[in-house]
Design brief:
Length: 141
């Protein structure tokens, strides 16, 4: 996997988003739910709780055996509590026969996945396109 350099977001570099901005943008691409994490630092328990609610709602809206992608392109740092949230979401999706892929993860966060060995459990791709392709292929075989 090609590593992405650590870089701060050009758009916003604080820990909280400006009022009125969602922490997660959800879209549907080729029948696969895509969650773009909009907050650069996922550190605060309140933020993690809000993200968990959005991702849980996304998985409820998807049907069993659905594909889901979480895009980290704007995230530069996250806490161990955020890792726990990802494990919970992953487990919920797998229990229904769905697929979860993560993409666009920078070196700092990828190191965290390596240290915790979550890179052995979670499906991690370099790009959104790779995630969409992998999920599509897994449902077509």
């Amino acid at each position: 996997m090609k590593k992405k350099p650590f870089k701060d977001s050009d758009e916003y570099s604080g820990t909280r988003l400006p009022a009125g901005r969602d922490m997660v943008s959800i879209s549907d691409q080729y029948g696969i739910k895509v969650a773009l994490l909009e907050i650069p630092r996922i550190l605060d328990q309140q933020d993690i709780s809000e993200i968990r609610k959005k991702l849980s709602a996304m998985t409820r809206e998807g049907q069993a055996s659905s594909g889901f992608v979480i895009d980290f392109r704007k995230v530069i740092n996250m806490s161990s509590s955020a890792l726990g949230m990802l494990i919970t979401i992953h487990k919920r999706i797998c229990e229904t026969g769905g697929k979860l892929h993560l993409c666009n993860i920078n070196d700092t966060i990828m190191d965290l996945f390596h240290i915790t060995r979550l890179d052995k459990i979670l499906n991690i791709d370099d790009s959104l396109e790779q995630s969409l392709s992998s999920i599509s292929e897994s449902f077509n075989t």
